[in-house]
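For concreteness, we quote verbatim a single protein encoded this way:
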Amino acid sequence: MRFLKTLCVLLLCVSAVYAESGLFSLNGKWKYIKTTSEDESIPSFRKAKKMYIPSNWFLKGSKRYPGEKGLDYSGTIWFKKDFKVPKDFKGKKVILCFDMVDYFTDVFVNNVKVGSHAGCFQPFYFDITDNIKFGEKNELAVRVDSPAEKQNLESDEDPGWPRKQSIIKGVFGYHDARPGGTSEDGQKYGTGGIVGDVYLKGVDNLYMENVRIEPYLKDNYTKAELVIKFKVNSYGPGSTDRQLFYKITPYNFQGNCEVKKEFKEPFSAGINEFSITETIENPELWWSWDHGKQNLYKFELFERTGENSGKPVYCSTFGIREIKIGKDWVWTLNGKKIFIKGSNYISTQWLSQMDRKKYAKDIDMMIDANLNAIRVHAHVEKKDFYRLCDEKGVIVWQDFVLQWGYTDKADFIKEAVRQEQDMIELLFNHPSIFVWCCHNESPWAMHWMQKDDADQNKLLDEALEKKAKEIDKTRYTHMASGLGDGHPYEGWYGGAISNYKSLPGEPFITEYGAQAIPVKSTVLKMFSGKTLFPQEDADWAVWKFHDFQKDVTFNTAKINMGNSIDEFIRNSQDYQAILVKYATEVYRRAMWSRMTGMFHFMFIDCWPSITWSVVDYYRKPKKGYYALQTAFQPVMPSAEYSLDLPPAKAMLWVINDTYRAYPGSVLYAKLIDKEKKVKEKWSIDVDIPANQAVYTGKEIFGLEAITTDDAVLELELKDKDGNLLGTNYLDKSCYSAKDYEAVENARKDAPVIKSLYVKKEIVLDGGLDDWQKNESARINPEHSLENGEFTGDTDIQVEMYSAWDKTNLYFAFDITDNEVINERIVSDIWQEDCIEIFINPDNQGLIWGNEKDYQIGVAPGSKQYAWFQKTDALDYVKVAVKESKTGYTAEVKIPWDFLKTKPGPDKVIGFSPAIHDLDNQDGTSCKLNWYFKSPGIILGKLILTK
């Protein structure tokens, strides 16, 4: 079909913008009345109240948070607005448009139903030409039903909230940052209402439904082939020709490219679809703010009305760029690798609060924090947000509106696929969007969510992935966040902050972080009286409603509450800042070796609450904001240090994720005491390559003064001309989350076993005759019982030995066990009788999952596995196990090369065996662990002797 013969630019992405002419706003005060959800007849509005629309009804027409005075209601509300149609709409088609309604909508004009809609984010419209009266008052009645889901907190009934939801609202239906969080109150302060603008549009002949541009770049980005698809609703009778013309001009930059071209097309009444293919030479490019300019063009389509005039049909901005994400999670933008530095974002629970000005402030804060990307977490924001990301150069990871578990009923899957298509077509043409993610933390993909059905929502997610890939071949589609991308919460839901040293999670991280209490002025708006500094259960219940996680705060993070709310706020914010800064720098230092990018969780509190955000609801930064800002600098010095011990040394790195190299740069380090005097200083010459993290080869020592004398290590990175590239610091606050006394006490109490040197390699046969002269150690069940129940000497006893030579480290275990059971495959041997050998070669404290530490499993049947290295270890670890009537014996040979360390007399190695004893298939009766103490993790000591 003939259509648009040439274009001078690649229309990669288009942000649809309705021309302002021909619009008549219906925003303003509407009448409203609550009714039962079953009532489908228009009620009497005689006693109705008034609410400014657009608004989520909880806000009652205001943009301010109303607290307990809000309209906390789930169910049906009827809205009514009287209007007169503008005189200049006469003779045109009159289209009634809604930008966003939550959730089920029925629309009546002059008592006649004109249509329905379901969803919480999509714009929709109805042709009401035949239902209106010109020159007279017309009545618009809108029935909005935003129900609470049937609650099944203790069961897996299908459907039911929270585990098997049936309404597609994402974080607005169930989320731990909602009012009430994941408790039984988690559906309070709902989001129902007419959330977006309502307006009439007068249409002469054509109504543009959708424009979609699919780009395919070729010849080293000097040429682009694109497919442009138009969907147009024609209101003309029968088949007729329309004389159209379009213009393409620079939107936000100076350029010579300007196209104006006419064409004719036959249009049939109803929906018309057109597709063209074009080749574009030397297109301009759209970049994220940290890598280039956000070049945008304007595309305008007109219907000819005169020789030099036309009526606007469609107007858009668009950009030119190509994005790819490989199976290794390496992202490229216009052919260049880009390291993602982002956070997760939910602007608010009630989207009617947001406008262009507020979005601009949020995005400016993101850029000021050095974020180049943002993840829209399990919802869809308003259109101004995406336009501003296009204009300001912030990359968007866009989630579909699914959060945690849903029903697997066929009609739900069908509806979810329909709504996902709505989202992709709505946002398709924004250059800032790089990723479509179908589901956040789907039950089948997250082991901690699996209940009665291990495959819950797998069919749903497969259908969503298939549809997304079918619609959009230009972007990456991710089936479920948490599947292939990491969500590590070390230091919050388990483990310690120091565990980030092992790079937990996958090569690409989409969530990590910790909660922090907002600044005091915000806390005073949230709590008062006794609840301000809670002590009793009733006070804590109020904090829980505001999403505070008490158990995690005090028992995992071990945050000290202090003696006042001021101390509590400071301690909470300090902890979050330490975690955010430490984890972010660890991940960035591993760029391109083991890491490709990350999204911190999360950026802004979406209501007055206590969440993982670094900016509170009132847009006041927490200390964690500045920690993120420091750790995300485009070019920065970084000190690699240990959180497990008081500061003694640091290894200095330089991180550069720009496309520019800085040869001849200098890294300056100064240790400054509390009197502002320089105690010591260093200067390191470094050639900084483009888009890499490099170790300078420099270790600096004598940093104990940071915690003992309140000294500060200041880092400054300057280029060859003396221009400042980046700064960083280490001070007492970077270490304050660690209990050094507990670490030292754990080290002091660690038991010792000696490993004797042998000249001849030990033969592994399962026998212990050649071990009898060696020193042994016994695992005392009374002191080493980690879990389960010890029932006596015939239940489990353990004697262990160790030896070494220049090539191998050897262990032997003599285990008394009245019943030996192990039928599992190698990676699951820990679930039955087995021996786990934990080894920390440098004795600095084992980090869970760290590939430089070892968790080696040995089991009857001579099975072995190394979990931290994710290998069966057959090429490395050798095992011989012999069973007897009273138990079993095991010999183990581990090469020093596998442990990546060298042996020698007096060498101290962190070591602890853990013995699993299963007495029946119902579960492990007990587990003994010789010495495995937190914080650290501190192990017992294995000393090589000669």
